[in-house]
Amino acid sequence: xxxxxxxxxxxxxxxxxxxxxxxxxxxxxxxxxxxxxxxxxxxxxxxxxxxxxxxxxxxxxxxxxxxxxxxxxxxxxxxxxxxxxxxxxxxxxxxxxxxxxxxxxxxxxxxxxxxxxxxxxxxxxxxxxxxxxxxxxxxxxxx
Length: 143
What we know:
This protein is 64% helix and 0% strand.
């Protein structure tokens, strides 16, 4: 469950890539039953693969708002606001892209609506503009 494959994928990455809502739900339930939530958060929810992507990047690519909602709700229950922002909502992959960049690049409007809703509740106005909307990736593109 906590192991990674050759691409550094955890079970959460695989569930995100496959868009498997049921597997995602079971992982969330399993995670809350285990005593060491810090380890589970870092190994499952916040784990980066070999491209430094987290499950949020993959769920965004698949336009799977059901998985995104479940991930967000579980993360809000488990993480402090700063962790939620820095390690989930604003985390950068190896191309310096946030999930926001991925959603804009792929035209995932429903996902962008979710990110906007969450960001307005969790981020300061400065974080919202500089770290999400105006953050630049490796090619100097903003979201």
